[in-house]
Amino acid sequence: MKQSAGMAGSKLGRFSIYTFLTAITALSIFPFYWMFVIGSNTTASINKFPPALSPGSRFIENLGKVFDTVDFGRAIINSFIVSTTATLCVLFFCSLAGFAFAKLEFKGRHFLFAFLVGTMMVPSQLGLIPSYMIISSLGWLDTLKAVIIPGIANAFGIFWMRQYIASSIPNELLEAGRIDGCSNFRLYWNITVPAVRPGFATLGIITFMGSWNDFLWPLVVLKDRSVHTIQIALKNLSGAYYQDYSMILAGTVLATLPILLIFLLFSKQFISGLTEGAVK
């Protein structure tokens, strides 16, 4: 009797967990579904009561309006160039700095790392005007360099890679490499980099999404329409007196697809990177 009661309780517990997870998944997916519903209907059908709750047949037509209103294809290419370049630079420079803080002994290492972590508490908006003055003095306004260069390294990336490398790479492995004649860079490139791929995937996805979704800084330094990124292009879809929400949401759906694709491609490594410390 006790065994059957325990099995019934276990089944009830699993059913409750699956029901909860299903409900959370539905709530998470619904905004994307509603975005597609609006983007595939007309604004009038969305504004009426009750609104349209099923996808319509005007998605391609609304996308056509998007490309007629702004140079959306160029904006996607610009965002892809900016996000990819910034992500690759962040992965290299932050992992290199993280390796130095985690595994190399040098004077002032702990103070410099504490100072670096402390900069994460400073709002990025405070550096907007000084950064603009620097970019302007370099003559980089209205170029993609103005968006890429300030984002090639960040304190969070260094902190993340430092913690990941410190917990993943044993000191004995590096000492064995030094005995074999490896330089510090070879220890980083041949031993550390292959061992921390989940950490790279996690930081890469976070960096790519942040760069792709960045709006304020590109809006400040990019005035020329030929170098607009995807978020500025979406902003330009809004009219002064009339908002065509179907067109705007159709463009938003298209702008969201690259992020979803990147996450699906690297989701396994992303989850592994987040949970590895807990598993250990």
How much of the sequence lies in strands comes to under 5%
Structural classification: mainly alpha
Q: What is the class of the domain at 70-236 in the CATH system?
A: Mainly Alpha
Question: Based on DSSP secondary structure assignment, what is the total number of beta strands?
Answer: 0
How many DSSP H or I helices?
14
What's the helix-strand series?
A: HHHHHHHHHHHHHH
Portion of residues within helices: over 70%
- What is the CA-based Rg, rounded? 24 Å
Q: How does the major sheet shape up? A: none
Write up what this structure looks like.
- The protein has 280 residues and is mainly alpha-helical.
- It has a domain of 167 residues: MetI-like fold (Orthogonal Bundle).
- Helix 8 runs antiparallel to helix 11.
- The protein is globular, with a radius of gyration of 24 Å.
- The model has no long low-confidence stretch (mean pLDDT 87).
Short descriptors:
single chain, 280 residues, mainly alpha, MetI-like fold, 14 helices, 0% strand, globular
Short description:
With 280 residues, the chain is mostly helical. The chain has helices spanning 2-39, 43-47, 59-69, 72-103, 109-118, 128-137, 145-148, 155-168, 171-179, 184-195, 197-213, 216-221, 230-235, 245-279. Helix 1 (2-39) packs antiparallel against helix 14 (245-279), helix 4 (72-103) packs across helix 11 and helix 8 packs antiparallel against helix 11 (197-213).
